[in-house]
Give the backbone structure.
Amino acid sequence: MKEGKRSKRDKEAKGDRDTEKKKRRKEEAEEQGPAAATGRSYTVSIAVAASCIENAQNLELATLLAGQVARAAAIFNVDEVVVLDDAPGKQEGRVSAAAALFARVLQFMETPQYLKKALIPMHPDLKYAGVLPPLDAPHHLRSSEWGPYREGVVKRSVKGQGSWLDVGLDRDAHVPQAVKQGVRLTLAMGERPSTATVQGQEVLQAQLALPTDPREKAGLYWGYITRIAPSLAAMAEQCPFPGGYDLVVGTSERGERTPACQLDLGPFRHALVVFGGPQGLEYALLNDELATQHSEPSGMFHRYLNTCFDQGSRTIRSEEAILISLAFLQPAIGTAQRQRQQQDGVAR
């Protein structure tokens, strides 16, 4: 009998705690405003050395490795993947074969399935790309799905009449602007379909949107940008986001061993997490112009972390390191954004 009463009291106490948690979450959301509740203004990028692809035994395994990196990026909402071309002796203005293969597979994986034929030309590097598991990201909408945003490719345009786009549905979408044929665009489609007849064709009405709108306005993960960096300096300096990276994290078995629960990254807007190849970031620095300024890699980063200490294997492969590190950093990234939102609230 006493045990039953104790169990009832425990349930009531748990219910009170749950109610209090919900109340706190509601108050936090109200303090941060609608944008904080729905949109995401910060970005997370990763840079991966192309030497991890070069180390693969054949094209099929290299493709699989690149596909695993793409999957990890999508799982952890990564907004940009930088292929760091760390091959020695590259010609000026040229990229290594490994970096080119890596970038092609990443772009193939990120492109919505209904746009691949129009946007991704056939290439020997993509021989095995068709068997990779799909990203299944929010912007890879199926023909039976509707969303407020959608990716499309311009099929034709007429000056003064606008553009018709393939958006993977039974009707083309139409925007009032005339845009060059073959261009990929992000479209705002509305909460529900709205049709019109333009030049005798029934179309879905849409508006042009910025590629960042789904993330910043609706909080949707909308894929990643792919770029190739010919050097460590270019990796950081050619940031596509306003203001550049204000947090750059290097990963290495020689980095600091701070437990994930104690890690404090500080508030940031654009973060870059850098992964070396089989020989680490030391190899990338050895073949880089920054070698004259830094004797070892840690000095190039705001933080230099070991994200998997006490490992059982002598080695951690690059594709494994990315999954481990992004999972390790998740709590600290969440804390950093709460700190930044609080700072922004005080500033306003």
The chain has nine helices and 13 strands. The chain has two domains: 43-137+223-347, 149-216. Residues 25-37 have pLDDT under 50 and may be disordered.
